[in-house]
Amino acid sequence: MATSVKAPWTIPLAEGPVSPSADRFVAGIVGVVAVVFTAALMSVEPDARGHGTHEKLGMDECGWPAAYGMPCPTCGCTTAATAFVNGDVFGAFVIQPFGAAVALLGLVAGFHAWACLIRGRSFVDAMVRLPFWTIVVGLTALLFASWGYKCLIWEG
Length: 156
Description:
This protein is mainly alpha-helical. It is 64% helix and 0% strand. The chain has one domain. The protein is built from 8 helices and no strands. The termini are far apart.
């Protein structure tokens, strides 16, 4: 009798750290949010300026550049995420590395959530085992480094 090998990063839903219904609820929310955001980002073209794509999604123009003469800390994140989900991965990292990284993490979380829902695995277990503070510190450092980079290439 052959035994199937399960991926070490997932455990059965019933063995998860929360009730199966709570686990599926969280995975469902993450999966749906990932699909909605991906669809929204895929519905527009990235702005050629490297920022401002959020305006195509109905948001107001950013007031930071007019007030301070420089890009805001998240300048270009929506543009980078749009480029990323439309297949321009390298271009997304050139536009705004933090925005591209967030897009990548969002897609990975969404795919993982749907995979857990389909396979009956615990989504929450994998999330609680991640090195949360290491990720937060790393993303914060990337945010500030990306802001500095954006300031260097800023053309307004």
